[in-house]
Design a protein that fits this description.
352 residues; alpha+beta; Aminopeptidase; 2 domains; 10 helices; 27% helix
Amino acid sequence: MHYQIRRLAPTDAAALHRLRTSPGVVRNTLQQPFQSLASVQQLLDNFPPHIHALVACTPDGELVGCGGLHPAIPPRRRHTALLFLMVRDDWQGKGVGGALMRALLDYADNWLDLKRIELDAVHDNHGAIALYERYGFMHEGVARGFNLREGVYEDAVLMARLRFRPGEHVASTRPAEPATRPAPRQDRPRQLFHLRHSEPADAAGVAALMAHDSVQANTLQLPYPDENAWRQRLSDCKYSLVAEAADGSIVGNAAIWQPSDNPRLGHIAELGIIVHPAQHGQGVGSALLQALLGQVSDYLPYRRLQLMVFSDNAAAIALYEKYGFAREATLRGDSLRHGGYHDSLLMARAVK
């Protein structure tokens, strides 16, 4: 059957509501079983302009599937997008998913020039996984306990399709070289520091920390950090720590946050740690990580703690593995660094 592919519109609320609440869609995606029609209408009336959502309709105009591309927000990941796809239960196996996939990939390749399209699929959704494989998506790993479904935290298969030009994807295993290499650890006396919650007044110190070339190379930070932007981030972040040296300088920063407001992912928190390059190997990262792990374990409801790290950042990977984080996936060409697209690792550990 030929399906009409068009953009999702505010007038699709009733049909989209029926699609999103289909039992099979709820089971195999991150939808909730009970949604109000009013909430779907509100979503469509205020649909984010950067998300590209398409629908598949039968020749008589009935909406039977929806899919889209959600481009990443961080500037160094704007070459990537998350793909989502839903087909109504009574139209499974009739080519709806394939029609949407062809349209979305044409959109991604020829109009958005996306280089990496990624997705997650519940581990036992074999039909969807086979569809994605047919359109060039490859397995990159498994996120353990990712999706709350019927009272069980289910694993998710992580997949991606790449479209890099020759030389763009730098799958190097060599550690990134900092612009200024710190002196060997034995030649430097250990600098005393203490941990405390970050404050908006720390913005200048944190911005200075982020300005180091090696920090930018091993994170998603940009050159020339904005002190005002950091003041706002520190104001907004509930769980952020700094390591402060005896002279009042900021030598480390760490935070945890929820990467999604979806209730079925509410058990997941993400973690990030930055250490001043002159303090590498001095225990700052370990102290920050131990403090955050203790806070999550003892006082917060999260069950899964995850992080992203460049695959060639051997020192950081060793630190995370020391504290129980396991490598779950290699995300190929995940982030832009020095003009090339580099691989990242997804690492995670259970905290409950």
